Amino acid sequence: MPTVPIRVLSEQLISQIAAGEVVERPASVVKELVENSLDAGADSIHVEIEQGGLRLIRVRDNGIGIAGTELALALSRHATSKISSLDELESVRSMGFRGEALPSIASVARLGLTSRLRGEEAAWTLQGDMQKPKPVAHPPGTTIEVRELFYNVPARRKFLRTERTEFGHISQVFQRLALGRFDVEFRLTHDGREVYALPAATSSETRLRRLAQICGEEFAANLRVIEHEKAGLILRGWLALPAFSRSQPDLQHFYVNGRTVRDKLVNHALRQAYADVLHGSRYPAFVLYLEMDPRQVDVNAHPAKHEVRFRESRLVHDFLYRAVHDTLAEVRPDADQHRIGGTVPVPAIRPQYQAPTQAGLGLAMKEQPATAYRPAFDVLHGRQAMPALGQDATVPPLGYALAQLHGVFILAQNQEGLVLVDMHAAHERVVYEAMKRDLEAGKVRSQPLLVPFMLKVSAVFADLAEQHATTLTEMGLELDRSGPQSLRVRSVPTLLKGEDVAQLVNDVLSDINTHGSASRLQETQDHILGNMACRSAVRANRRLTHEEMNRLLRDMERTERAGVCNHGRPTWVQVDLPELDRLFLRGR
User: What is the mean pLDDT of residues 213-218?
Assistant: First the structure.
């Protein structure tokens, strides 16, 4: 085989290789150019697309602009105004910082750059093979035109999809960018047709309007505001109520210091936080913003900057889990949730109704004092009058029971109108949360094995078991190291008796290795408790007295996550008076 001499690659080929990492498809170009506009301080950005980005991508902004003498330099590799030292790289806050985007794009497309520096009278343009910029008329800001993407790399161009598919990717990128900066006006047109016109959103109302335009009206009508701060970490944004879940993770937007990211650690923490309120095959929806010291996150992990690395990954994971878990726990029956009729897009987190006594376990609770509720009107027998629900009356969120419907639903009346409760789903959640509280109060009980179970594992897993032995014992799993690659399992949590011991231990150690916690133990225990609660909950066609129905309503108001059952189904809905009027054409 003949030897091939080592040679230095040409600058053109070097740029085209770099472009392969930065410029995947037209959507990648849009992302890089819009991020440059944001870094330039623009508060108005217009993206124009032709033929799915294959023919033209034009991005116009009103940012600070580029001096005419620096236009050629802007197209040079690794030339940037955003960082100048390693210290700045380790605490970077700008969207771009590598100086790769423009030269990479220019190497695989016909690129034109026109800009006018703020405060300057003249604008300058550099098009294609021009050696020197020329003066032109242009408002303050920058316009970049990218034509005939991959015209000189046919192998890359043939892998692109249809114009419709490519524009779909552009639209997704545009949406993420627009959700990341509410203070900026964004416009998107395709083949001359306006797709998005998003004015700057600086108030709660206008931000909500942008959310609805991008994520849909239904998403905007099923939100819970989240704001949590601890240990230098701040999480803000919106969580969709569990009843609004998705069959795929297509409404999940997560930002770190303003940068949209996809991260396994983040996904695991949020998935775990929703575990108690979503069916295993459903996905939560959210728009969340994590702010932290930029020195604690590495944004230089991937050329396209989609991924990040957290220096304190365990701290971030636990913070995200606890913040979202606690916010979802506050979702209890409230007049603004599960509404049919009027739209209340961002329910306020406000004090919940509290009955005078402690909750018992579902319908087996002790008799409450007469002040806890008043017997409701019996629709069939007219035994007692319904309490007056005037504007000044103190009425709990779920009101008072009227009757049962088909042995499945409880009908109740509150200030807003009619409440319908799925009694099995509601009671299942009440029982499940009570079981979890009892388990936590009494700590986890363990079941000693008559004969210790010997298990072969990797040296890494054996080390982890030894390091986390105390924590695992507190969770009911007692084991010790019996050799370099073997463990002796002495006891397992009582709830998990009968489970595959080898699989359980391997799963738990795998969780510790990946996420730093034994989350699988908790998940497995919760799954078993959920099944027990489902079997214990009141069944369809069981005739409930008004006292029992009202006890269930009061229990729901005290119970965390009572808006959905353990499988993610809503436990109740509100039909407000305007909707009832509409159904019967009242006032028309």
Answer: 95
Torsion, CA 42, CA 44, CA 45, CA 46, rounded to 10: -150
CA distance 531 to 535: 6
Report the sign of the C-alpha dihedral through residues 305, 307, 312, 317, in that order: positive
Residue 65 exposure: Cα atoms within 13 Å on the Cβ side:
20
Q: How confident is the model at residue 18 (pLDDT cuts 50, 70, 90)?
A: low
d(CA 188, CA 167): 11
Instruction: Classify burial at 300, counting beta carbons within 10 Å of its beta carbon; exposed 0-12, middle 13-18, buried 19 or more.
Output: middle
Q: How far apart are CA 166 and CA 160, in angstroms?
A: 7
Q: How far apart, in Å, are the Cα atoms of 413 and each of 163, 340, 343?
A: 53, 14, 19
**CB 268: neighbour CB atoms within 10 A?**
18
CA distance 386 to 373: 11
Q: Quick one: tokens of 62? A: 């009103």
What SS3 class is residue 517?
coil
Contact 274, 252 (CB under 8 A): no
What token pair was written down for 43? 């508060």
Torsion of CA 390, 393, 396, 397, to 10 degrees: 40
Is the whole model's pTM more than 0.85, yes or no?
no
Q: Please state which of the ranges 82-86, 271-275, 479-483, 584-588 shows the lowest mean pLDDT.
A: 82-86
Q: How many residues are listed for the chain in this entry?
A: 588
pLDDT tens figures, 128-147: 878 899 999 999 999 999 99
Residue 552: Cβ within 10 Å count? 24
Residue 482 CB coordination number (10 Å): 14
CA distance 243 to 104: 45
Q: Tell me what the pLDDT averaged over the chain comes to.
A: 82
Q: How far apart are CA 431 and CA 347, in angstroms?
A: 26
DSSP conformational letter for 301: S
Distance in angstroms (rounded) separating the CA atoms of residues 239 and 224: 5
Q: Tokens 């969340």 label which residue?
A: 288
| Backbone dihedral angles phi then psi of residue 85, each to the nearest 5 degrees | -155, 165
Q: Please give the pLDDT value at position 109.
A: 93
Q: How many C-beta atoms surround the C-beta of residue 217 within 10 A? A: 12
DSSP-based three-state secondary structure for 271: helix
CB-side exposure of 574: number of CA atoms within 13 Å? 22
Rounded to 5°, angle at Cα 271 from 268 and 273? 105
pLDDT for 351 beyond 90 = no
3-state DSSP percent of the chain in helix, strand and coil, to 5? 35, 25, 40
Task: State the pLDDT at residue 470.
Answer: 85
Within 13 A of 201's CA, how many CA atoms are on the CB side? 18
What's the confidence (pLDDT) of residue 352? 30
Tokens 């009103």 belong to: 62
Backbone angles phi, psi at 5, to 5 degrees: -70, 145
Measured CA to CA, the distance from residue 132 to residue 152 in angstroms comes to 23
CA distance 474 to 521: 11
The DSSP secondary structure of 436-454, one letter per residue, reads HHHHHHT---EEEEEEEEE
DSSP string over 318-346: HHHHHHHHHHHHT----TTSSEESS--SS
Residue 468 near residue 481 (C-beta atoms within 8 A) = no
More confident residue, 2 or 23: 23
Backbone angles phi, psi at 47, to 5 degrees: -110, 120
